[in-house]
Structure formats: structure tokens, C-alpha cells
């Protein structure tokens, strides 16, 4: 059995503002049994316990510690091992909440210049090339890969990409 620690502070010293809460918490955590700390919600980092616990609670816990004599090493080993056995570990994967957001009608218009036949089209993994022009509703061109001058036509190449890799927006 562990030796019983002596009372460091009297009731008047505990109630005075000269004694910080952190000192009381440190003493209780250093000397009290785990179950005692758990009952009084004094487990954890001293800084975090000091934020949540009131000084009155700490004074009561300090007094009860000496009344009940539940110091470290006083708990029977069998009781502690039973508590450890009773703890159940649950590994449940967190379910990702997927919300379907309705975006309304498409914010673009697509015009087909030449309709393709349903038999001759690129398969997944094939490389395709295309010329494109992006315009706003008022006709302003915001993006294009079509050259403006004829002599630049020899230097430029159409946009090339592989089908099925998700690198291009459909449409």
C-alpha cells in the first residue's frame, strides 16, 4: 500500500486567492486514485481541467480525498483489471454524410456542329483532339484555342486529351 500524503493546505489556504487552482489540481492528480479522479472529473491535462473545474469543486474533492483515503495504489489490482476488461472498444467507421445539392438547370449551352453516327466514336483510353471556343450569352469570347491569324494556324495544335481519365468536363 502507498503511504498517505500529508495535507499541504488548510481550509483557509484553500479558500484564499493566493493558492491557484492548478496547484490544487496537480496535487489531487498526483495523489488520488484513478477512479477518484474519474468520479470528480479531474482526469486530463491540468490546463484543461483548470478551465472547466471551479475552485469550490476542487476544495470539495481535496477534502473528500483525505476523508475517503482513496490515494494512488489503494485500489485493488483485481478491481482495476476488471474495469479494463469491461471497457469495450468500438471501431465503427464514420459514415460520410452525402448531401445531394440541386444546382438547377445547366449554366452553359452546348451546340453540336456535326452530329456523329452512333457507331464511330472514341473509346476509353483513346486520344482525341478538338478545337473549341467558349462564349458568354452576350457573345463575348472568354476562351478559345482557335488561332486568329492564318499564319499562326501552322504553329497551333488542337486540344488533345485521353478519354475516360476525367481531365475534361463532359459536353
Word description of this protein:
The protein has about 170 residues and is an alpha+beta fold. It has two domains: about 10-85, Transcription Termination Factor Rho, Rna-binding Domain, Chain A, Domain 1; about 110-165, Chitinase A, domain 3 (Roll), CATH 3.10.50. It is about 30% helix and about 10% strand. It is built from six helices and four strands. The protein has helices at about 10-15, 20-30, 35-40, 45-50, 55-70, 75-85, and strands at about 125-130, 135, 140-145, 160. The strands form two sheets. The protein has a two-stranded antiparallel ribbon with strand order 1-4. Strand 2 and strand 3 (about 140-145) form a beta hairpin. Helix 2 (about 20-30) packs parallel to helix 5 (about 55-70). The radius of gyration is 37 Å and the shape is rod-shaped. The mean pLDDT is about 75. It is an enzyme of class 5 (isomerase). InterPro entries: FKBP3, FKBP3_BTHB, PPIase_FKBP_dom. It catalyses: [protein]-peptidylproline (omega=180) = [protein]-peptidylproline (omega=0). Keywords: Isomerase, Phosphoprotein, Rotamase. This is peptidylprolyl isomerase.
Amino acid at each position: 500500500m502507498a503511504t498517505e500524503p500529508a495535507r499541504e493546505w488548510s481550509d483557509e489556504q484553500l479558500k484564499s486567492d493566493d493558492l491557484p487552482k492548478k496547484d490544487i489540481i496537480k496535487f489531487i492528480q498526483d495523489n488520488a486514485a484513478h477512479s477518484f479522479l474519474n468520479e470528480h472529473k479531474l482526469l486530463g491535462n491540468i490546463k484543461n481541467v483548470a478551465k472547466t473545474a471551479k475552485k469550490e469543486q476542487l476544495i470539495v474533492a481535496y477534502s473528500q480525498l483525505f476523508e475517503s483515503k482513496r490515494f494512488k495504489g489503494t485500489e485493488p489490482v483485481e478491481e482495476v483489471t476488471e474495469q479494463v476488461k469491461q471497457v469495450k472498444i468500438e471501431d465503427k467507421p464514420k459514415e460520410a454524410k452525402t448531401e445531394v445539392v440541386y444546382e438547377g438547370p445547366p449554366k452553359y449551352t452546348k451546340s453540336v456542329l456535326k452530329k456523329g453516327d452512333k457507331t464511330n466514336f472514341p473509346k476509353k483510353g483513346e486520344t482525341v483532339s478538338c478545337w473549341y471556343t467558349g462564349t458568354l450569352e452576350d457573345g463575348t469570347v472568354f476562351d478559345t484555342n482557335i488561332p486568329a491569324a492564318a499564319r499562326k494556324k501552322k504553329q497551333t495544335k488542337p486540344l488533345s486529351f485521353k478519354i475516360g481519365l476525367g481531365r475534361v468536363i463532359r459536353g
